[in-house]
Amino acid sequence: MKKIIPHIWFDKEALEAAQRYVSVFENAEINHTTVLEDTPSGTAHLVELTLAGQPFQFISAGPFFTPNPTISFLINCITKEEVDRFYNCFIEGGFELMPLGNYPFSPYYAWVEDKFHVSWQIMLNHAPKSDQKIIPTLMYVGKHLGECEQAITHYINTFDGSLKGEITRYFEEAPNPDNSVKHVNFIIDDLMLGAMDSGYDHNYQFNEGVSFIIPCDTQEEIDHYWSKLSHDPEAEQCGWCRDQFGVSWQIAPTIMGELLNTDNQEIKSNVIQTFLGMKKFDINQLKKAAE
Fold it and tell me: Can you list the alpha helix ranges (DSSP code H) found in the chain?
């Protein structure tokens, strides 16, 4: 099964960020870079990379979206020295959202927003529930406060083979509503994620700064996920969509990489211009554009 891929939007710093992250994670490398000409935001630079054995994709495509803490990346660390290594890397040019210290859920933890606006939760965890090192974590705030459990149920019903872990809930912990989700882990498409509600006064919401790519082999898969996850017609463009909870998804054919990996600039340009005109991707039309 092809794993969902976290995608992070940058203004111009995708490659710089990738190089920094590859330097601090083990089992990490930059796999491929692609230049996309004549996009709505000009020339875009796409970076495919691996961090701790997990696939990520970054794009430099202008100052249109900025990551924020509604989607952060939790790093399970086995030693305090490992926590310190990640903390020292990410705090350089960044700032603390929760200071490094002892918390009820971890003896050594920090939440940091780095110089690229990417949020990292760095946690000492001697007994992680998964071998997955980096766990994308969704935080439902503002108008989406209290929707965490409903959202997770929707995702579980959308992806085959999904699993939901035990939910811990708030009780008499203002400003968090009673019975809202303090934390839950869940698995969709072989990717573990975390999620929580937060009743604090945050000045951000989910946006396209962090999205999730769903690789699809067939048009039937694309149609299925689009019907389940596209809720806002204004957000539909080039395979991107936004669900009813505000989270952004990219429902993309796996053949796209093959179509763009050509030295024939005319074909490549034709493919790019074809998909730029699409909302939901049509695999047959993309193949015709590459002929």
Answer: 14-24, 80-91, 148-158, 219-229, 256-260, 265-276, 283-289
Is residue 130 within 8 Å of residue 192, measured between CB atoms?
yes
Interior CA angle at 54 toward 159 and 86, to 5°? Answer: 125
Structure tokens at 58: 């970054």
State the helix-helix crossing angle for 219-229 and 148-158, rounded to 10 degrees: 160
CA distances from 213 to 74, 134, 217 (A): 19, 16, 13
Question: Is it true that the peptide bond before 99 is cis, omega within 30 degrees of 0?
Answer: no
Tokens linked to 71: 């989607």
Q: How far is the C-alpha of 235 from the C-alpha of 252, rounded, in Å?
A: 15
Q: What are phi and psi of 141, to 5 degrees?
A: -130, 170
Q: All domains of the chain, ordered by start, with CATH?
A: 1-63 (3.10.180.10), 71-197 (3.30.720.110), 211-291 (3.10.180.10)
SS3 content of the chain, % helix, strand, coil (to 5): 25, 35, 35
Nearest to 281 by CA among 231, 233, 234, 237: 237
CB atoms closer than 10 angstroms to residue 264: 10
Long-range contacts of 269-276 (CB under 8 A, 24+ apart): 269/37, 269/38, 272/36, 272/37, 272/38, 272/39, 273/38, 275/238, 275/239, 276/38, 276/39, 276/40, 276/238
CB atoms within 10 A of CB 284: 8
Residues 170-209 pLDDT 10s: 999 999 999 999 999 999 999 999 999 999 999 999 999 9
- Give pLDDT tens digits for 99-158: 999 999 999 999 999 999 999 999 999 777 789 999 999 999 999 999 999 999 999 999
Q: Looking at the chain, how many residues does it have?
A: 291
